[in-house]
Amino acid sequence: MKFRIQHVTRYEYAETVSLCHSIAHLKPIQSRRQQCLASTVRVSPWPAVAREHEDFFGNRVNYFSIQQAHDALEVTAQSEVEVTPFPLPEEDKTPDWERAVERLYDKGDGLMVEARIFTLPSPQIPLDPAARDYAALSFTPGRPILEATLDLMGRIYHEFEYDPASTTVTTPVAEVMANRRGVCQDFAHLAISGLRGLGVAARYVSGYLETLPPPGQVKLQGADASHAWFSVLIPDIGWVDFDPTNDQVPGEQHITTAIGRDFQDVTPLRGIFYGGGTQDLMVAVDVDRIEETPAA
């Protein structure tokens, strides 16, 4: 399935900004289930410096610097992506999770060894004891890792309330665990903290989820939003994604922008600026299917 994505971020400042430096994670990555067919990032005002590089995690990162006075900043990313579902094996055909942890220390398996960074605490995901104990209820001795992770995903979906007003981008895992509420970022952070506490390699995934209007209604432009989930490394299969916000393994409707240890590694847009005073932020996201034209 092919999608066209537009992500517009606009800052309006109460006072003039004289200089800003920013980085953006807005171009979708390439993976076994996703091909980025085209992608551009436009910045207004025109930046004095702009360049793109690939970071440690393989993400496409755009850096830009605006060195002229401005009262507003607008960044527009447009991409075309093709997503192909990745078939999963039967749950009980995957190795038990303890064996998956052991494989991370097998020097003969480069992919597994490189993933050990995703077992360590990160700035926004400490190894929270409560999150570890919560995950351990799914990761019982000898349980297949895919079966255990699906169970953990389902428990988060059913036992935590989706509440956009309850958290911010800096809410700690311990608070989410205690209050049992949050948003997609919080649920991904919670799951990753618990998994890493057990020694399982788990990473944060940032992207988009296609949303469809109710039957008979027109889709509102700009009404989509960024989304987040997590992935786990399963030996001999690779990284498998899990979306606890919706209790589903991401398929054709999930588009990946970037991966990292936590949200801080993959923020859509961040930077520093001089001046500005108070600021108003507007974000509009559109994820639209590209209809295939039948062959003549």
TrEMBL record:
Record-linked InterPro entries: Bac_transglu_N, Papain-like_cys_pep_sf, Transglutaminase-like
Domain Transglutaminase-like positions: 176-246
UniProt cross-references to Pfam families, sorted A to Z: Bact_transglu_N, Transglut_core
PANTHER family: BLR2979 PROTEIN, BLR5614 PROTEIN-RELATED
Record's protein name: Transglutaminase domain protein
